[in-house]
Amino acid sequence: MDHLGQRWADLGIPTTPLEAAPHLSDALGGPRVFFKRDDLTGVGLGGNKLRKLEYLLGDALSRGADTVITTAAAQSNFLRITAAACRRLGLTPVFFVRAKANEELTGNALCYRLTGAEVHVVSTADPYSESTIHAMKEYAGDLERRGRTPYLIHLGTFSGPLATLGYVDGTRELIAQARSAQVVFDHAFVAVGSGGTMAGMLLAFADAQMPCTVTGVSVCEPARRLTDMICDFTERAAELIDIKVRVPRHSVHVIDSFIGAGHGIPSSESLEAVKLVARTEGIFLDPIYTGKAMAALIAGVRNGEIRRGANVLFMHTGGAPNLFRHAEAFRNMLDRSEIDGNYRG
Ligand SMILES: Cc1ncc(COP(=O)(O)O)c(C=O)c1O
To answer: 269 and 321, same structural domain?
Structure first.
């Protein structure tokens, strides 16, 4: 691993398990499914964003920053983890949050509010809104005039290449685990928001000459836009760590058919996927990211794109704290008897 020297902060991420999921494999009727448990990365209840933050916050510290300014949706896993990681490293988190005025204090929002992160509400729903980036920069200017040193993060644009390096590391770890278990993956599935996780996976697989087909399951943006972003991130991340290999555009396979009614809204397929994985493996997904990615994996098995003998990797990117925010959606799908139990008073 190349940790870019001083531009990397150790957030104590353990080697996350690579686990076989035999009961889920049986329920699906064949393919061997494995989970890379990046929901267990640690700080802030864990999740994929921690690997990215080792690079981003490392860069912030190397520039003498004392404050981190970023933006995401109100129930963002990224904000929860960033808030916790900032506090770990002695940085002040400042968030420009896409929220409704009456956003509930639950799930991820409860977590980052507990850290005392400074929250500014923005009214747009667009993660790439120029006006939000402008507001963040203006606020950074204000802080500088007051003698502070802010560092800006925007995962979908200027922070994407550096963040991608976190998943080059994560995937190299996975490749080493697969080799020692003598497993060769035919397919991998990952939820795609900003695309950095998928970009890192593609780059590390290409660098290791592993011909695994990675399917990125968009939770928000059209596939074409994400494909452009991921190609750009892989190229610029490769330059940062001097990897010679390039990821060809045709291997960036993003699908946008599992978004459902929109970002942040559970779909019936994602709720079913979360339920199936909990009941077969005792692993908790979430209905916004990993549930949608798992729904795509299940559909791939059912429509025959994934053959029975295949080895399939599922990148578990975290998100389970957001289950609590969506309790109502599950209430509507679970049988009454399952909720009330068999109590006879
Ligand atoms: C649980 C979870 N999975 C996947 C993603 C998507 O990761 P990326 O932004 O690297 O595409 C996110 C991003 O917010 C997430 O919170």
So the answer is: yes
Residue 344 pLDDT exceeds 90: no
Cβ atoms of 3 and 241 within 8 Å: the answer is no
Write out the two tokens for 131.
């006006």
CATH of the domain at 211: 3.40.50.1100
Is 174 within a domain? yes
User: With 80 as the cut, is the pLDDT of residue 252 above it?
Assistant: yes
What confidence score (pLDDT) does residue 336 get? Answer: 62
For residue 282, the tally of other CB atoms under 10 A from its CB is 8
The catalytic residue positions are 76
CA angle 45, 47, 50 (to 5 degrees): 95
Pairing of strands 18-20, 32-37: antiparallel
Q: Is the CB of 227 under 6 A from ligand 1?
A: no
Whether residues 235 and 321 fall in one domain: yes
| Range of lowest pLDDT (1-10, 246-255, 263-272) | 1-10
- How many whole angstroms from 193 Cα to the centroid of ligand 1? 5
| Separation of alpha carbons 200 and 237, rounded Å | 8
Q: What is the pLDDT of residues 196-240, one digit of tens each?
A: 999 999 999 999 999 999 999 999 999 999 999 999 999 999 999
- Is there a domain that residue 13 lies in? no
Measure CA 118 to chain center.
23
**Per the domain annotation, does 121 fall within a domain?**
yes
* Residue 192 CA to ligand 1 centre (angstroms): 6
Q: Is 119 in the pocket of ligand 1 (CB under 6 A)?
A: no
Q: Is 319 in the pocket of ligand 1 (CB under 6 A)?
A: yes
Please tell me the total count of domains within the chain. Answer: 2
The residue whose C-alpha atom lies closest to atom 13 belonging to ligand 1 is 193
Q: Can you give 76-89 as a three-state secondary structure string?
A: CHHHHHHHHHHHHH
Q: Which residue, of 100, 126, 153, is where some domain finishes?
A: 153
Task: Quote the pTM value.
Answer: 0.96
Domain range enclosing 173: 18-47+159-338
Q: Say yes or no to pLDDT of 135 above 70.
A: yes
Mutate to test the pocket of ligand 1, among 50, 225, 289, 316 (most ligand atoms within 8 A of CB): 289
- Please give the distance, rounded to the nearest whole angstrom, from the Cα atom of residue 317 to the centre of ligand 1: 7
Tell me: do 239 and 101 sit in the same domain.
no
**Ligand 1 mutation target, pool 40, 77, 297, most atoms within 8 A of CB:** 77
Which of the listed residues 153, 185, 213 is the one where a domain comes to its end? 153
